Amino acid sequence: MTQARGQGTEPAGDQQDQDRDPDGDQQDPDRDQQDPDRGQDRDRNPDRDRAATVRVFIALAPPDEAKDELEAALRPAYDAYPRMRWNRIEDWHITLAFLGELPVGAVPPLRPPLADLAASRGPVELALRGGGHFDERVLWSGIDGDVDGLHRLATDVRRVVKECGIPFEDRPLRPHLTLARARRDDRSSVVDVAAGLAGFTGRRWRTERLHLVASDFGRGPGPIRYRDLEAWTFGGR
């Protein structure tokens, strides 16, 4: 494994010089609070636009036992760095493809081919390992185990999306689990917590389901929340 800038184990992937979070759903946590009108036409009705669209990604989720181990390792950091924007444990996920803001009507055609894909594949065996950061702003835990199998799954997921005619930014996969984001005036907490996670090695686990997920990012001043639109069990289980 190579090392990320700062501390921790670099998540598997190729763009080692890209320190920002490669997941499109992980954006600047202070953006909406700083400038709620940024990037919007003031003559448009954002509530109407948001009702017609949904922010979507496709992901895997660790089982509760694996999340409990990592939560225990993070407990001192929760107490020591309360100003960090910690993701809810139930929202932890490994993004395979981020599709961005889609018209609501674009989502239903994704369901049958993703269901078929999950049914045709066995689980991938993974583990959570180490920690690191993107640009001293985003804290993550790395992914170990059958990373090649994870890449193959992501490739097939993205192929399905393209076959459905949905354009998206097909960035190289850098498997990781996003844990928290720092505030604009805090450039050290993420680095410190990542250093503390460098030696973490979690249990191995098998992926259970493929998740089609919606995010509420940008839809209010509160924390980001995720919800399953649907999830499909892998056929080998």
Looking at this protein, list some descriptive labels.
alpha+beta; 6 helices; 26% helix; 27% strand
Description:
The relative contact order is 0.26. The protein contains six helices and nine strands. Mean pLDDT is 81; it is low at 1-19 and 25-49. 26% of the residues lie in helices and 27% in strands. The protein has helices at residues 31-34, 46-51, 64-80, 111-119, 147-163, 189-197; strands spanning 53-60, 85-86, 94-103, 125-134, 138-145, 176-181, 201-206, 209-215, 226-233. The protein has 237 residues and is an alpha+beta fold. The two termini are 30 Å apart.
Strand order of the largest sheet: 2-6-5-4-7
Bin the helical content: 25-40%
- The overall pLDDT, averaged over residues, is 81
Give the strand content.
25-35%
Outline the biggest β-sheet: 5 strands, antiparallel
Low-pLDDT windows of residues: 1-19, 25-49
Structural class designation: alpha+beta
Spell the H/E element sequence: HHEHEEHEEHEHEEE
Radius of gyration: 18 Å
Q: If helices are DSSP runs of H or I spanning 4 or more residues, what is the number of helices?
A: 6
Question: What would a concise description of this structure say?
Answer:
Helix content is 26%, strand content 27%. The chain is built from six helices and nine strands. 35% of the residues are buried.
Topology:
Layout lengths: L30 H4 L11 H6 L1 E8 L3 H17 L4 E2 L7 E10 L7 H9 L5 E10 L3 E8 L1 H17 L12 E6 L7 H9 L3 E6 L2 E7 L10 E8 L4
Antiparallel strand pairs: 1-3, 1-8, 2-6, 4-5, 4-7, 5-6, 8-9
